[in-house]
Write a sequence for this structure.
């Protein structure tokens, strides 16, 4: 049975990956997660210089969901290279590093430095950053032109797998996805969190120190499945689907909608052990349905 | 002093509930049969407990009050949905726990005395700390436990051999000394002339109590060692999400890894959020 997934020059042993920002720099979970069961890990988004992040409170639980406003707290590029890469040296699965550079030049600089680091197997571009250069307002991931420019700038600097991570907050995901594909992205990851807010009615203050935050977890899953399905019809490159995946059944839903690989984020917080069972459970499902290759499943939804 | 634990020692496991008794108004004593965690947990560390309900996603952090062979003793207060659901668990049910997590209280035996101050449910982790010293040097430790009234004093049954070292206080005077834990402590500071001694203070309780203690030390004895346990909402509990941070002189620090025990002088009290 074949459950390998190819993303550009990178081969994932199975479709299960972890979502950026929920798995730290790959070592925090220690023995709670056997990394040998994962198809790949994606590290916390890093920026050219360190960021302190947003003021607390940074977390609030909502029905079947989690609202967070971490504010991209990270150690920055240089400390990432000197402190965070060495412990990953003997990691048993591919390591994909999530980066955010604000501008094309910022993304290009991050890529140039990380391209020289052996243990970095791929780059995921977190495009949910303010769109400064293209005057479109909003986020880079909301503007096809800005997405194309950033992906092209990164592509020029590396042969490693390049994944464009998109936001669900767009009216036409196909246009954004096609822009990333045309500029040379090897895959598209979606969805990032959905901007949201919660209020304490007693104090009439926002629950989060940053007022708004990003919603994740099972509450957003149907939105994510729909976006993966729409995007699958618009691009040929693989899609890494995520948003509220908790079980094998959820993972299959994304794969059948069109995802070649999937990522689990919030649910790692909930049940790390259960998450690592997903690849085996996918194999059981394939056996039951007499499938030999996971590619038979990808995008196989029967709409008629 | 506080100590970092090797991360490889934390585990995720199922634990059988040996007891989940109501011991006061909205207050419960939970005992989990969980040898792997009980054998390695240190005073001040916590476990991350999954509430067995699909709609409640996040685990809830709970201090281990003390461990006895294969048993974990936890005391909790019903404050919201998760703790309410916990209170409906029965003996024999099983829960999923991750632990032990966080750093721990370590008593500084080079001091002349150690004073442990617990406000409300916050006294829980200090019981384990006090018990860990009982065999060694009993006269060394004083534990002051405060609660609003006699009914809310739930720790007497587990204090046991510590009783000589314990002072109980109530806001209304219905049991023990009348007054807040912090007030009882300030009084003791004067009468026992603690300023002239080398003493270490360890506290856990409401933010207001910790802030009052911090303000006192800043004024009275800036060199005094004052360790306290802080709370923040958590998601991962293992240092992966940066969700549980508190502001310190070294920048934001994670309660689940660099804490929950902090040196009060490292905390930026003015920026600490009171939304917890
Ligand atoms: C390291 C640590 C150790 C703790 N030890 C104990 C303990 O031994 N006994 C005990 O009773 N409680 C303890 N707590 C607090 C306990 O985690 C919360 O009371 C619990 O998570 C509330 O869950 P809930 O679903 O009942 O409340 P919710 O409905 O989630 O919220 C109710 C109230 O509780 C607050 N709250 C929610 N989550 C947390 C949290 N993680 N930390 C602090 N406040 C929170 C909310 O701000 C709100 O005011 C500890 C917290 C931490 C961080
Ligand atoms: C606490 C937290 C931090 C996150 N940080 C990042 C980040 O740094 N970069 C990024 O691209 N996505 C980040 N995300 C989004 C996730 O990678 C993922 O896209 C989203 O949470 C949906 O998946 P989930 O529902 O399985 O969590 C974060 C999510 C959470 C919950
Ligand atoms: S709860 Fe995730 S870092 Fe502390």
């Amino acid at each position: 049975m074949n459950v390998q997934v190819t993303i550009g020059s990178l081969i994932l042993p199975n479709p299960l990956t972890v979502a950026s920002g929920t798995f730290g720099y790959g070592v925090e979970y220690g023995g709670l997660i056997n990394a040998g069961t994962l198809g790949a890990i994606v590290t916390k988004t890093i920026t050219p210089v360190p960021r302190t992040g947003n003021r607390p409170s940074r977390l609030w639980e909502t029905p079947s969901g989690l609202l967070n406003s971490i504010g991209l707290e990270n150690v920055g590029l240089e400390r990432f290279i000197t402190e965070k890469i060495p412990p990953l040296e003997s990691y048993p699965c591919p390591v994909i590093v999530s980066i955010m550079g604000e501008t094309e030049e910022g993304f290009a600089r991050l890529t140039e430095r990380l391209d020289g680091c052996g243990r970095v197997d791929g780059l995921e571009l977190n495009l949910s950053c303010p769109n400064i250069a293209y005057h479109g307002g909003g986020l880079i991931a909301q503007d096809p032109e800005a997405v194309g420019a950033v992906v092209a700038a990164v592509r020029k600097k590396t042969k490693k797998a390049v994944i464009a991570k998109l936001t669900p907050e767009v009216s036409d995901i196909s246009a954004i996805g096609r822009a990333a594909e045309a500029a040379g992205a090897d895959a598209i990851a979606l969805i990032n969190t959905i901007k949201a807010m919660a209020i304490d009615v007693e104090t009439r203050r926002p629950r989060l120190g940053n007022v708004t935050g990003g919603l994740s977890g099972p509450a957003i899953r149907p939105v994510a499945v729909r976006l993966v399905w729409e995007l699958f019809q618009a691009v040929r490159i693989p899609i890494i689907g995520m948003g509220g995946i908790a079980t094998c059944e959820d993972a299959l839903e994304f794969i059948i909608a069109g995802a070649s690989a999937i990522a689990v984020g919030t649910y790692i917080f909930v049940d790390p052990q259960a998450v690592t069972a997903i690849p085996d459970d996918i194999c059981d499902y394939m056996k039951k349905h007499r499938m030999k290759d996971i590619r038979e499943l990808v995008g196989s939804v029967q709409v008629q | 002093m506080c100590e970092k634990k090797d991360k490889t020692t934390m585990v995720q496991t199922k634990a059988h509930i040996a007891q989940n008794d109501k011991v006061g108004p909205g207050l419960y004593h939970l005992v989990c049969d969980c040898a792997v965690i009980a054998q390695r947990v240190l005073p001040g560390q916590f476990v991350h407990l999954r509430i067995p309900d699909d709609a409640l996603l996040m685990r809830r952090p709970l201090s281990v009050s003390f461990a006895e062979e294969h048993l974990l003793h936890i005391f909790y207060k019903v404050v919201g949905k998760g703790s309410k659901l916990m209170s409906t668990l029965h003996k024999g049910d099983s829960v999923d726990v991750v632990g032990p997590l966080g750093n721990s209280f370590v008593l500084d035996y080079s001091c002349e005395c150690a004073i442990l101050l617990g406000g409300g449910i916050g006294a829980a982790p200090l019981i384990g700390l006090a018990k860990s010293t009982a065999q060694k040097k009993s006269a060394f430790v004083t534990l002051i436990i405060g609660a609003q009234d006699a009914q809310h004093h739930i720790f007497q049954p587990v204090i046991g051999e510590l009783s000589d070292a314990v002072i109980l206080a109530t806001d209304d005077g219905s049991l023990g000394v009348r007054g807040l834990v912090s007030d009882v402590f300030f009084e003791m500071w004067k009468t026992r002339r603690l300023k002239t001694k080398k003493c270490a203070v360890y506290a856990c309780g409401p933010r207001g109590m910790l802030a009052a203690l911090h303000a006192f030390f800043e004024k009275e004895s800036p060199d005094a060692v004052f360790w306290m346990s802080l709370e923040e909402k958590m998601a991962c509990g293992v240092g992966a999400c940066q969700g549980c941070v508190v502001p310190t002189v070294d920048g934001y620090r994670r309660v689940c890894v660099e804490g929950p025990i902090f040196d009060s002088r490292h905390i930026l009290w003015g920026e600490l959020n009171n939304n917890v």
